[in-house]
Amino acid sequence: MATCRGIDVSNNQGAQDWMAWKKQGLTFAFAKASEGEHTHDSRFATHIKGIKGAGLVPGAYHFAWPNQSATVEAANYISAVKPYAGRGFIHWLDLERYNDGRNYQGRTAAQIKAYAAAWVAAVQKAFPSQRVGIYTSASDIAAGHVPSGVPLWFPSYPGSSADTYAEAEKHTRPAPSGRSVTLWQFTSDPAGPARIDQSLAYMSASAFRAWAGVEAPAYEPFPGTSWFTTGRRSPIVAAMHDRLVEVGCGRYQSSKDKDVIGPGDKASYEAWQRECGYTGSAATWPPGKTTWDRLQVPKS
């Protein structure tokens, strides 16, 4: 199974040589941005600038307090990352219980799940073309704290049998409570001097970059008008959707399954046709070659 490698950092780690990490084969790196309703991580700006400067896929995470307001916490996170969250930025809710339970105190499983769903929705609304997922444990998943339909970054530590990337890559992909995980954090205390959380993503480096949106997928040549009338499933549809959002036509938002043509995609494309100067029947679905070619992602 194809994988790629990454790490995550917080104010517990000092300055990093991010180019050195990249040369060691890393594809992505995430930094803690915020916690609760008001706290920002003191090293976030330094970390994220270095991550982006090295050309790694960047991301950030927010440590959750489900017994506080999801709306306020999402706003706290958004304010921390907004200056840095360009194309391909990945957002994570760190949903884990403190050892003494203070951040879960007084909340039922249903309330924690509702908090997580609300936080994800608020951050997705703020960054509609970017990935938003949840970092969480097997116990949280088993307890029903985690909404469905979100990418999962899963921590689980086999110990010395998976102390390096090479060892972790030989392990079976985790499936806590039958859930599929996108990333596996396989150690928080690796052998050697690094002492930095290490993770695998279950896709190749190029696929991960495309998934994150760092490099928007290239379209195929215009497939003909009839191709768009079948509601078909295709990565081309997801690329079209992402590009429509990028050019400002994403206010309609199609279904969560972006690989399938839905009403939102049709409405968004018609908005794009109008922006290209078409009116009346010329601005209705399906796409034509002229507007399709104008929507192409610039190759640089």
What does this entry look like structurally?
- The chain has 300 residues and is α/β, with parallel strands linked by helices.
- The protein has two domains: 4-212, Glycosidases (TIM Barrel); 225-294.
- The protein contains ten helices and nine strands.
- Strands 1-2-4-5-6-7-8-9 form an eight-stranded mixed barrel, surrounded by four helices.
- α3 links the parallel β4 and β5 (90-95).
Q: Descriptors for this entry?
A:
alpha/beta, 9 strands, TIM Barrel
Number of E strands? 9
With strands numbered from the N-terminus, the spatial order across the biggest sheet is 1-2-4-5-6-7-8-9
Contiguous uncertain segments of 5+ residues:
none
Q: Tell me which CATH architecture of the largest domain applies here.
A: Alpha-Beta Barrel
Classified in CATH, the superfamily of the largest domain is Glycosidases
The structure class reads alpha/beta
Radius of gyration computed on alpha carbons = 20 Å
Helix content bin:
25-40%
Count the helices. How many? 10
What's the number of structural domains? 2
* Strand composition percent: 15-25%
CATH class of the largest domain: Alpha Beta
